[in-house]
Amino acid sequence: MTTLLEMRGISKLFPGVRALDQVNLSVEAGEIHAICGENGAGKSTLMKVLSGVYPHGSYEGDIVYDGETLALKSIADSESRGIIIIHQELALVPLLSIAENLFLGNEVAKAGVINWPLAFQKTAGLLQKVGLNEAPSTIVGKLGVGKQQLIEIAKALAKDVRLLILDEPTAALQENDSQKLLDLMLELKAQGVTQIIISHKLNEIGRVADRTTIIRDGTTVSTLNRKEITEDRIIRDMVGRDMAHRYPDRTPNPGEMLLEVKDWNVFHPDQKDRQMIRNAAFSVRKGEIVGIAGLMGAGRTELAMSLFGRSYGRNITGSVTMGGKPVDTSTVTKAVDAGLAYVTEDRKALGLILEEPILRNISLANLAGIALRGVLNPRREAQVAEDYRRAMNIRTPNVQQKVMNLSGGNQQKVVLSKWLFTDPQVLILDEPTRGIDVGAKFEIYNIMNQLAADGRGIVMISSEMPELLGMCDRIYVMNEGRIVGELSRAEASQERIMAMILNSVGKAA
Amino acid sequence: MSEKSYLGSHLREYGMIMALVAIVFFFTVIVRASIDVDFLSAQNITNLFLQNSYVIIMALGMLLVIVAGHIDLSVGSVVGFTGAVAAVLTVNQGWPVWAVIPACLVVGGLIGAAQGYWVAYWKIPSFIVTLAGMLVFRGSTLWLLNGQNIGPFPRSFQSLSTGFIPDIFGDADQALFGMERLNGTALLIVVVAACIVVFLGLRKRAQDASFGLTPEPAPVFWIRNAIVCGALIFVGYKLAIFRGLPNVVMVLAVLTVIYAFFTEQTTSGRRIYALGGNEKAAKLSGIKTERLVFFCFVNMGVLAALAGMIVAARLNSSTPKAGGGFELDVIAAVFIGGASMTGGSGKIIGVVVGALIMGVMNNGMSILGIGIDYQQVIKGLVLLAAVIFDVYNKNK
What we know:
Chain B: Its main location: membrane. Chain B: This is Xylose transport system permease protein XylH. Chain B: Keywords: Cell inner membrane, Cell membrane, Membrane, Sugar transport, Transmembrane, Transmembrane helix, Transport. Chain B: GO terms for molecular function: transmembrane transporter activity. The structure holds two protein chains of two kinds. Chain A is α/β, with parallel strands linked by helices. Helices cover 33% and strands 27% of the residues of chain A. In chain A, a hairpin with a 2-residue loop joins strand 4 (60-65) and strand 5. Chain B is mainly α. Chain B has two domains: 11-32 and 49-157 and 257-395, ABC transporter involved in vitamin B12 uptake, BtuC; 164-245, no CATH class. Chain B has helices at residues 3-9, 11-35, 42-67, 75-92, 97-122, 126-145, 155-162, 172-176, 184-210, 218-241, 247-265, 267-277, 279-284, 289-315, 326-336, 348-367, 372-395. The longest helix of chain B is centred in the middle third of the chain and has 27 residues, at 184-210. In chain B, helix 4 (75-92) packs parallel to helix 6 (126-145) and helix 5 (97-122) packs antiparallel against helix 6. Chain B has 17 helices and no strands. Chains A and B meet through helix 10, helix 11, strand 20 and helix 13 of A and helix 12 and helix 13 of B.
């Protein structure tokens, strides 16, 4: 076998973060190569380097492809060499037909005039190749995610793909659609298409991958042959980093029961039959920090948002009690009144009004707290904001500053302040340290510990396992919309969490 | 912070006032030089307000709609329709004025509700809903009036637009000073208003200082207030020596104060800005976004009805074409006044100044005899320039 692709010593810096550090990857012609790693390990960044999203010069290291050193300038550049990436978020235009999508930007045309009969004919051939039994004129938006995924692959085939990269292709798929996709991958392999698949799912890797490269913290840990691939080995390599003292000390002192959620079921807001959360149950006590672990798409955010005023999903059923009494959380206002607060994972889109000053953002969820009979008291508003600025150590010249001028960590403190001003008993923090630097993370951890010490209950959703292990008294493990396990602080380890996730894959029914 | 950098960071607010002053100055000089007429004569100032009152009134409501991230294209047609309703009720049905006015306001509110319902609860784009409303209510006006003009209105209805606040001091002043007859009420009101402006300004300065915010530098504060109060008293004096304060100006002033208070000092007003700034974040903060959008449209409908009656009273008849194209003047005034196209920002006072800029330009160009063709081109360019200035300022 010959080597088709060799990535040597790839390093990529983002401001303040070394996303990739001397990564090596070698892919043989005609193989299916799996890439494994935790969220944020650098898999996607590596693929973006390979596909020209990050052009030559913005990273260090060499890409040797088909015996030639590449200096890619753009995605079009990589595509012209047959390197095609299919992202997790599909790049199809939902209102156009399959044929129009397949040849988008690559139209079957002469002098700008499209030859539709030929395009339809070619489309039919490509659809047959990927095993999709749909008319070329079908509107893409009407098809399910599984079929759309196949169209993406057909689109790649239309461009004479030589190296096909699939970024978590089955993450959004049902079990049988996943199987079909994996079959197709094997078929394409037989036709000589080299493929790279990014996946968390061990059974998939076991089924299709010839070799597997494991990436952790932006570096290559190992490349395993088919024979060497075992669950234990992959988990160890994926999570085996040392746990430095990155978390403030705290003596947990859980008190009486606060929030209890039972039999929680949620369906997708648009796809009626797709159940996103199945029979979830969890609880938090006073002074307790409870974690929810899981991979992306496990349903953690959906669980939290459906709980908080039904901000996500439909056909929501289940019971919520607070301090033993049933509470109504069916609107955000009611949820807040019940003592809940939800700090979003997407603070820019869902948490803040970026154009407005800090003080107005802090008062937003509790305007009644700074008003008398509907008339605002600006003195009180400024006082409240000033108090939180001090307490949270929000770094800003004054509270009139627009929040868009703040750093990620300080923005996060503003969102936290907003919710603390509603005086919640239970705070659900969704990825509270995402996208903020190490120092600010430590501050957020300290704030969380302080809140727990004050007798509030905290639910922490995080994709960073070390963070959960370092902060939480108990950890729930979620996968595919279900809570698949619960670990005490003493029991919890990255290996056990990962094993719970991987063992639960596909067992949902 | 130095005075210069303070002015720089508040360029927009001061720029608006300066622009208005400059435009007035420009027309005063040019009108005097070219046709030897006093642009700032008492009669012309009165006219200026009578001509533009309805644009300002509707701009107050349009600001709320635009701050919420929407638009209302139907207001011109609603002006025509409610004017027609007023005419039919008063002239044809013989209803008394005290019943017609609330009835028309209710009709306006219902129209706003009908449109706001689709926008707020069905998420139909407001552009489409109100474009449809624009056609529907223009057609309805034609139908209601049967294609004819209806009038004249009784005197009491006309006074809505052409009436003046009576002088409580009678003609005493005339006897006291041997000069022109002065309307004491008008003068008293503007002097009191000027005092209130200064008082509120001083209070806000003290407040800012106590919050640790950078207050407006003292010289800037006093110069700005001198200009504002000077203009206020000058206009008041001019009105006083003519026929006094027009009723419309009083309505306008009261509404402006109410809306400024609502947008800046109340929780509901604040929530509209939050909704326009980031609807999803507002919703996740427990704000009932649908209800607020609905309210904005109802409010817009009521103000359009008020404007419709003022227009009908001024023309002393209801015509099928009344209000045609008003929506564009109103929307332009809001954007010249500094509201953001994407929602979430804009101030009542800016909108009033924006509408006055438009009004002064209309009036000045008409006096100069500039053709409607050039007038439209110039107004269009002013709107474009104001918004470009905004965007440029933001990106700087």
